Amino acid sequence: MILHCLTCKALVDAKQIAEDTRETTDMDFPEATYDGTLLRTYIQYTFLKCPKCFNPFLTKRVYSNDDSCLYDIFLTLYPISPKAINSEINIYIKKSFEEALLCFDTSAYTACVILCRKTIEGICKEYNIEKGNLSKKLIELKNQGVIDDNLYDWADALRIAGNDAAHDLDVTFSRKDAQDIIDFTYAIIDYIFTYRKKFQLFKKRKDKK
Ligand SMILES: [Zn+2]
Description:
It contains 5 helices and 8 strands, in the order ββββββββααααα.
């Protein structure tokens, strides 16, 4: 399994040592099927070690049958970097952001900025916002109420939404630029997938009473 080793500051092919799988019940879709087969819902914990520094990893994978299709949530429970994403988030968004952090660690700042943009594009895709450039997509995120005015203004001030500089071969980004966009990307993930989700769950519970 390819994981980000914080000690080696690299993506490593971590070696699996043990695995535990436990069945769960999806209360929202207990009987979801796909092509006539009942979809299982289960959680898988995997214990691994880095092939270079031998430090351990513990990961959690959630297989659920939301929206009648197999949905994969992946979390690294240990080790956790200061900017680790702890919220339950789609795997490709998490991967883009982890690669962005890795690029920052290895001073590849332009690549870091491009990967942060890719992460934000991934978030837009989660809300079926796929048309137009990043600028239009961020406006749509704001219009749909997924992000608030403060986050939108932050994106605007960073000019990540303003142009497609990341696609221009002549443009390079500094360490400061990369740090700014990492901070923003982390904030938008945290806002949508932790703060906003918790608030929605709270409202749901409250409405049921
Ligand atoms: Zn390592």
